[in-house]
Specification:
The chain is mainly beta. It has seven helices and 23 strands. It has one domain.
Length: about 450
């Protein structure tokens, strides 16, 4: 482990509040995510990182976590230069979760600020974001948000992971991070604490909370912890990753589904940047009002999904779904086909860099996401509602006082996602416990 990994933040914080915060959730008392095991967790120390080639030769029993020293997202194999100065000397460091009976991987990559990627064998992957700080200022005069996908966010002192259990019956990874400004990380806005539990069935439970480090400032809180972005491997385009719609000749790239009905909102990407949707604003809001929802990236290889619902802390009365792609949609900011090569390979000292055809780098794309809202409100104009909600301190304090849970996984078809999602959420408050996912199939 590089010495820089020992450089943890000395900013004032109540670590016990973040790591062990007690919340009452439907009758179960949960000490944050730390009561997941009756035994005190111990950080696993092994013989050191291995290469990806060595890893491929190692057999897997159940599920395991291994550190590697030569990983890059999206099958990028080139030199990590020219680039901004790397914050640490380990840009290719990653913790990889592998399964005995499942081909996908779950990856905490340094170059993606350790924001984990659910990765298919092709290198295509799904990221489901983190607690990103509210944007400071007004729409016409804003300063951007504090986050991780910038030069400072990749520093080990601002984002770091520890393996608490390495398998074979269960893997437990703890991720801590500080959302920081692009220009300066001397005053982090918030601290996130997330635990990830993986079992041999190929599923992952994400348990997350955060603490504002500037509690009187609205921009030191978050309203968007779950937002899907995809990773396209080097040389791949959308047509290479998703199945075509035979009638329209475009590709189903993103979707939101109701786990308790056949409601399904779909976003298709086509030639020359064309975006269309199957569904309307009313359908998207109806799905958001369901007690169980899933956001999906339906790759041709496998559908990757994130399940959330009332039982896992994402109350429908305080959640809305946002489509950032489709022109004219009320809920999103109309990126169209959002394509960026600024991460997961952090080439520019910037939080935005549009992908260009022929780029030699892996790139990211998206998005569709979940946003917290004040009770009784819905997104009707993204910019106005986002900036307005950011200043609602009751909403901000509510988000900072809760522990939220998301089920991540892969599936062959839509029915599998609905079945697995319902099995998990139907456990009620117990779905917050790591073992709630162990028996799902």
């Amino acid at each position: 482990m590089h010495p820089s990994q020992r450089d943890r933040r000395n900013a004032p914080r109540d670590t016990r509040r973040v790591m062990l915060c007690a919340v009452a959730l439907g009758g179960w008392w949960l000490c944050g995510v730390a009561t997941a095991s009756d035994e005190s967790p111990q950080v696993v120390r092994d013989a050191g990182p291995v290469s990806l080639a060595e890893l491929e030769r190692q057999p897997v029993q159940g599920v395991c976590a291994v550190e590697v020293h030569d990983y890059a997202p999206g099958r990028y194999a080139g030199a990590l230069s020219p680039s901004p100065p790397h914050a640490d000397l380990n840009p290719r460091r990653a913790i990889l979760l592998r399964w005995e009976h499942h081909p996908h991987r779950f990856v905490f990559s340094h170059e993606a600020s350790y924001c984990p990627l659910l990765e298919l064998p092709s290198g295509a992957a799904m990221c489901n974001q983190f607690f990103e700080g509210n944007i400071e200022g007004e729409p016409t005069n804003h300063r951007g948000s504090a986050e991780l996908f910038n030069i400072h966010g990749r520093k080990e002192r601002n984002s770091f992971v520890d393996v608490l259990e390495s398998g074979p019956g269960r893997v437990w990874i703890r991720w801590n991070y500080f959302a920081v400004r692009q220009e300066d990380d001397s005053q982090p806005r918030l601290r996130g604490a997330e635990d990830y539990f993986a079992y041999p069935n190929g599923l992952v439970l994400r348990s997350m909370s955060y603490q504002s480090l500037m509690p009187d400032c609205y921009y030191a809180y978050s309203q968007q912890p779950v937002e899907l972005f995809g990773v396209a491997p080097v040389g791949c385009q959308i047509r290479d990753l998703f199945s075509p719609d035979q009638e329209h000749g475009d590709y189903l790239t993103l979707a939101a589904i109701d786990l308790y009905s056949d409601r399904q909102y779909e976003i298709y990407w086509g030639a020359e940047g064309r975006v269309r949707r199957r569904g309307d604003d009313a359908l998207l809001q109806a799905i958001a009002a369901s007690p169980g929802r899933a956001l999906v990236m339906p790759f041709a290889q496998r559908k990757l999904f994130a399940v959330l619902g009332d039982a896992s802390g994402f109350l429908a009365t305080r959640s809305d779904l946002v489509d950032h792609c489709t022109p004219g949609v009320k809920s999103g900011c109309e990126w169209g086909q959002g394509l960026w090569d600024h991460w997961p390979i952090g080439w520019l000292n910037s939080q935005a860099s549009d992908w260009k055809p022929g780029s030699p780098y892996a790139y990211s794309f998206g998005s569709i996401g979940q946003f917290f809202i004040p009770p009784g409100k819905r997104y009707t104009s993204f910019v106005a509602d986002y900036f307005g909600n950011a200043k609602d301190m009751e909403l901000n304090r509510w988000t900072a006082s809760r522990v939220f849970h998301v089920l991540l996984g892969t599936a062959r078809d839509w029915d599998d996602i609905r079945r697995i999602g319902r099995q998990w959420l139907d456990q009620g408050p117990a779905c917050a416990r790591p073992e709630s996912i162990a028996g799902l199939q």
